[in-house]
Amino acid sequence: MAKVVTSEVERSISISSNPKDKPHYSKLQHQHSRRSPFCHFSPKLSVYILITCGILFILFQIQSLKIPPISPSLPPNNINPWNFMHKLQKVINISNATLAAESERCNQELNSLSSKLRDAVTFLPLKDLRFSSSAQKGHTWFMSSMYDAHEEGEVQYQQFPSESSKGRLLCLKGKDTHEGAWNSYALAWPDSLPYNATFMKGLTFVSYNHYNYDNIWHGLSAMVPFVAWHIKNKCELPTRWVLYHWGELRLKMGPWLRTLMEATFGEPLYIEDFHHFEDNNSDDDDSPACFEDAVVMRHNEGGMSRQRRIEVYDLLRCKARSYCNVSNEGRSWDVDGKGVPVIGMTMFMRTGPRSFRNDSVVIDIFQKECKNVEACQFRVAYSNNLTFCEQVKLMSLTDVLISPHGAQLTNMFFMDRNSSVMEFFPKGWLKLAGVGQYVYHWIAAWSGMKHQGAWRDPDGEKCPYPEDDRRCMNLYKGGKIGYNQTYFSDWARNVLNEVRSRKVEEALILKNNSATNTLGSICTCN
Ligand SMILES: *[C@@H]1O[C@H](CO)[C@@H](O)[C@H](O)[C@H]1NC(C)=O
Ligand SMILES: *[C@@H]1O[C@H](CO)[C@@H](O)[C@H](O)[C@H]1NC(C)=O
Ligand SMILES: *[C@@H]1O[C@H](CO)[C@@H](O)[C@H](O)[C@H]1NC(C)=O
Ligand SMILES: *[C@@H]1O[C@H](CO)[C@@H](O)[C@H](O)[C@H]1NC(C)=O
Ligand SMILES: *[C@@H]1O[C@H](CO)[C@@H](O)[C@H](O)[C@H]1NC(C)=O
Ligand SMILES: *[C@@H]1O[C@H](CO)[C@@H](O)[C@H](O)[C@H]1NC(C)=O
Ligand SMILES: *[C@@H]1O[C@H](CO)[C@@H](O)[C@H](O)[C@H]1NC(C)=O
Ligand SMILES: *[C@@H]1O[C@H](CO)[C@@H](O)[C@H](O)[C@H]1NC(C)=O
Ligand SMILES: *[C@@H]1O[C@H](CO)[C@@H](O)[C@H](O)[C@H]1NC(C)=O
Ligand SMILES: *[C@@H]1O[C@H](CO)[C@@H](O)[C@H](O)[C@H]1NC(C)=O
Predict the structure, then answer these.
(1) Burial 450-459 (b: 16+ CB within 10 A, else e)
(2) Any transmembrane segments, and where (predicted)?
(3) Which of 141, 231, 260, 323 could form a disulfide with 128 if both were Cys (CB 3.0 to 4.6 A apart)?
(4) What are residue 470's phi and psi, to 5 degrees?
(5) H helices of 372-484, where?
(6) What pLDDT is stored for residue 302 in this prediction?
(7) CA distance to 403, 423, 428, 429, 483, per residue, from 459 (Å)
(8) Which residue ranges have their beta carbon within 6 Å of ligand 6?
C-alpha cells in the first residue's frame, strides 16, 4: 500500500533548516483518480477469461466440424484458418471490451468508496474535557478514545498503524500551542487519507506530558517510555518528535533533557512544529499531518517493571557517559596507591530556594567525616553553573551524593549502580508537599541507587495559618535548610561505612574475575 501512496506524492519538500535534513513531507493530491488495490486483480482475471473464451470457441469449432455441411455447395468457411483467427479475435475483442468497461466501473466505484472513507475520517479533540478531573489517572484526556497496548511489565503505548488500529495511520491537526481542545486527531487508512493531508515519512514519537518538558524530572518521566520502546524495538530511531502538554503543542524541551536525548539516540533531535509544509496560498491552517509510523506515549513509566526501568537508566547512563567522553568502566577500578577503593563523596548544592541556610557549616560537617575514611574524596559543586557533561562527569566520580530536594538530584542516575543518595528538606514538606516529594526515592529505586533517607529540618519560618493549611506550602516551598551537626555526622559515618564495605567486597570480586572489566563499557544500543 505504501507504494500506492508514494506514487502519488505531488512534491517532496526537504527542510533545509533541519540540521539533518531528515524529515520529509509530501503533500498528497487526491484530485486525479487513484488505482484501487481491489482492481489489481483485473489483468490476471482477464487472462483467465480470455483463455476460457478461447477454449469455448475451439470446442465450438470442433463441434461444427463434426456436423456435415447442409449445403455441399457452400465453401467450408469454418475450417479456413484465417477465418478462425478472425473469429477468435472478435471474441477476444468483445471480452476485452467487457473487461475494460467492468474495470472502469470498478475503478469508479472504488474511487467513490475511497472518497467516502476520506470524508468519513473524523477528527476528535486531542484534549477531551470530559476527563479533565481524571487527567492524570488511567484514562487520560489525551486521545481519550484510544486504548493502550499493555503487556505485563512493559510500557503502555499505542502504535499506528497496527493490528489494533486495523492498519490505520494516525493523523493530527495539532499545531495549536495554547488550547489542546483546538487540536485534534483521527485514524485513516493509507489509501484514504483525509483531504490535503501531509504524509510524514519515518517513525514519529508522539509524547504526552501532563507537566512540562523544561523540568528535568517531569521531562525525563515523559521520555523514559520512549527509551524503553527503543530498546525493545531493535534500537529503532525516531525521525521526529511531536510533544504535547495538555494537548497543546510544545516546540522545545529543556537543554539538559534535550542533550540527554541526543546522547541516547545518538543524533540531533528533530521536534516537529508542523509549519514547514504550510501552503502559501491557503489560509487553511488546519491541514492534517498523517504519520507513516507513530508511537504514542501518555503514561510515563506507568506499567514498567523494575527490570525494564533499570535497563532504561542503564542505557541513559551509558550513552550520556559515552557522549561526554567519560569512562563507562565504573568506579570499582578507581583505587588509591595502596589498592584501597576510592570513595567519592559529593555535595551537590543549590542556590536560592531549598539551599542550605549556611553552606560552609554543612560542608565542614561532611568534609570532616570524609577525611576520617581512607581514600575518601570530597567534592562540592553547584548545580546551577555546571554543563550537562560536567554533571555527568561529576556523577561518574561519586559514590555518595549529598543534595537538597530539587531537580538537580535527577542527575543521580549518572552514578554507578548501587551508589548512595542523601536528601534534605526544609521545614514543612512532609505534610503538605504531596507524593511528589518522594520522586527521588523513586528515581533511586528505578535506576538501581540506594536512597539513604532524607533529613527534614524541624525549624524554619513560622506559618501564620494553621499548620496543615495549603497556604503554608507556598511559604515552605522557598524555605532554606538548616543543619543538625550530630545527626549529619552520624548519618554520614554510617553511609560511608556501608559504602566502604560494599566497595571492598566489589574490589575483591573484581580481582578474582578480571573478565568483568569490559562488561560495563558497552551500551545496549550501539
Ligand atoms: C479488435 O480490436 C482492434 C483494436 O482494438 C481492431 O483493430 C480489430 O479490427 C478488432 N478485431 C475485430 C475482429 O473486431
Ligand atoms: C484490450 O484492450 C486494451 C485497451 O483497452 C488494448 O491495449 C489491448 O491491446 C486489447 N487486447 C486485445 C487482445 O485486443
Ligand atoms: C484543500 O486545500 C485547498 C487549497 O490549498 C482548499 O481550497 C481546499 O478547500 C482544501 N480541501 C479541503 C477538503 O479542505
Ligand atoms: C512559499 O513561498 C515562498 C516564497 O514566497 C517560496 O519560496 C516557497 O517555495 C513557497 N512554499 C510553498 C509550499 O509553496
Ligand atoms: C568527545 O571526544 C570527541 C573526540 O575526541 C570530541 O569530538 C567531542 O567533542 C568530545 N565531546 C565532549 C562532550 O567533550
Ligand atoms: C555559618 O555558620 C558559621 C558557624 O556557625 C558562622 O561562623 C558563619 O558566620 C555562618 N555564615 C553565615 C553566612 O551565616
Ligand atoms: C558556581 O555558582 C556558585 C554559587 O552560585 C559560585 O560560588 C561559583 O563561583 C560558581 N562557579 C563558577 C565556575 O561560575
Ligand atoms: C548492587 O548490589 C547488589 C547487592 O547489594 C548486587 O547484587 C549487585 O550486583 C550490585 N550491582 C552492581 C551493578 O554493582
Ligand atoms: C539533632 O539530632 C539528634 C539525633 O541525631 C537529636 O537527638 C537532637 O535532638 C537533634 N537536635 C536538634 C537541635 O534538633
Ligand atoms: C577469590 O578467589 C579466592 C581463591 O581464588 C577465594 O578464596 C575467594 O573467596 C575469592 N573471593 C571472592 C570475593 O570471590
Answers:
(1) bbbebbbbee
(2) 45-62
(3) 141
(4) -60, -25
(5) 388-396, 429-432, 439-447, 470-477
(6) 78
(7) 18, 17, 9, 12, 9
(8) 358, 360-361
Buried b (16+ CB within 10 A) or exposed e, 280-312: eeeeeeebbbbbbbbbbbbbbbebbeeebbbbb
CA 490 to chain centre: 44
> 286 with 206, same domain?
yes
Residue 440 has pLDDT above 50, yes or no: yes
280 Cβ closer than 6 Å to some ligand 4 atom: yes
Domain of 90, in residue numbers: 37-69+77-118
**C-alpha cell of 77?**
468457411
The answer on 290 and 150 residing in a single domain is yes
Helices marked H in 250-305 — which ranges? 255-265
Q: How many domains does the structure of the chain reveal?
A: 3
The answer on 9 and 143 residing in a single domain is yes
Q: Is residue 526 part of a domain?
A: no
CA dist., res. 262 & res. 264, Å (int): 5
Residue 136: how many other CB atoms lie within 10 Å:
12
324 Cβ below 6 A of ligand 5: yes
Residue nearest to atom 4 of ligand 9 (CA): 487
Which listed ligand is nearest to 29 at the C-alpha? Answer: 3
Residues 332 and 285 reside in one and the same domain: no
For residue range 282-307, what is the model confidence (pLDDT) as tens digits?
Answer: 545 678 999 999 999 987 887 899 99
User: What crossing angle do the helices spanning 359-371 and 485-512 adopt, rounded to 10°?
Assistant: 40
Residue with cell 551508589: 419
Indicate whether 141 and 264 sit together in one domain: yes
What pTM did the predictor assign? 0.79
The reply to whether 160 and 89 lie within a common domain is no
Residue 319 lies in a domain: no
Residue 10 lies in a domain: yes
Is there a single domain that holds both residue 144 and residue 104? no
Ligand 7 contact, 385 CB (< 6 A)? yes
Between CA 337 and CA 48 the distance in angstroms is: 87
What is the pLDDT at residue 275? 79
Could you give the strand order of the β-sheet that contains 400-404, starting from the edge strand earlier in sequence?
376-382, 343-349, 400-404, 420-425, 450-456
Cα 256 to middle of ligand 4, angstroms: 35
Question: Same structural domain for residues 284 and 410?
Answer: no
